[in-house]
From TrEMBL:
Gene3D superfamilies referenced in this protein's UniProt entry, alphabetically: 3.40.50.880
Subunit and interaction comment: In the presence of PdxS, forms a dodecamer of heterodimers. Only shows activity in the heterodimer.
Chain positions recorded as L-glutamine binding sites: G48, E49, S50, R108, I136, R137
PANTHER family, per database record: PYRIDOXAL 5'-PHOSPHATE SYNTHASE SUBUNIT SNO, PYRIDOXAL 5'-PHOSPHATE SYNTHASE SUBUNIT SNO1-RELATED
Catalytic residues, chain numbering: C80 (nucleophile), H172 (charge relay system), E174 (charge relay system)
Name the record gives this protein: Pyridoxal 5'-phosphate synthase subunit PdxT
Chain's gene name: pdxT
InterPro entries: Class_I_gatase-like, PdxT/SNO, PdxT/SNO_CS
Keyword Lyase part of the UniProt annotation: yes
Biological source species: Trichococcus pasteurii
GO cellular component: a single term: cytosol
Length: 190
């Protein structure tokens, strides 16, 4: 059966994710309202601006439905701002949303202002070839908790990690023709 994957479509790089999923033969749909989560097998929370996406999640009454989606055991892929939103990080301003789906501490904009964006071929544990990875004002993961496996790092900064249900990358997987990070995520989707 074809897998059905939603892309949270409140702000950020939505269309590119839908296109990447379509190329992999997956049914991809935009998620704007709580009902859009019905019947999905997995979800991508894309890059953009985590504060803006977090605010819109609350405005659209999506926080509780997202927590239920997670509690039902479905796979979720958080990329860049999506990584930040999925984290447990305790050091953020109270008004900012953290969903706590994966036990990681995050450094927002961790690569600094000088290096706003860059592209590398990134060795990734579990993917045979290095992944073509685009970083845009990217966060990195300072530390991971129990049950979290590091998948990729740059100069000691963790940029990809997973637990059994959640995958997070600090890079944007949707901006190149390399779909291997999506294929890796789809293996988590049941
Ligand atoms: N490309 C991105 O998603 C950037 C993330 C952004 N810097 C944030 O903190 O939300």
């Amino acid at each position: 059966m074809t897998k059905k994957i939603g892309v949270l479509a409140l702000q950020g790089a939505v269309t590119e994710h839908l296109q990447a999923l379509n190329k992999l033969g997956v049914t991809a749909t935009a998620v704007k309202l709580p009902g859009d989560l019905d019947g999905l097998d997995g979800l991508i929370i894309p890059g953009g601006e985590s504060t803006a996406i977090g605010r819109l999640i609350r405005e659209q009454q999506l926080e509780e439905p997202l927590r239920q989606f997670y509690a039902s055991g479905k796979a979720i892929f958080g990329t860049c701002a999506g990584l930040i939103l999925c984290s447990t990080d305790s050091s953020h301003a109270p008004a900012e949303l953290r969903l706590g789906f994966i036990d990681i501490e995050v450094e927002r904009n961790g690569f600094g202002r000088q290096v706003d964006s860059f592209e590398v071929r990134l060795p990734f544990e579990g993917i045979a070839e290095p992944v073509e990875a685009v970083f845009i004002r990217a966060p990195y993961i300072r530390s991971v908790g129990n049950g979290v496996r590091v998948r990729a790092s740059i100069d000691g900064k963790i940029v990809a990690a997973e637990n059994d249900q959640i995958l997070v990358t600090a890079f944007h997987p949707e901006l190149t023709d390399d779909l291997s990070a999506f294929e890796y995520f789809l293996k988590k989707v049941r």
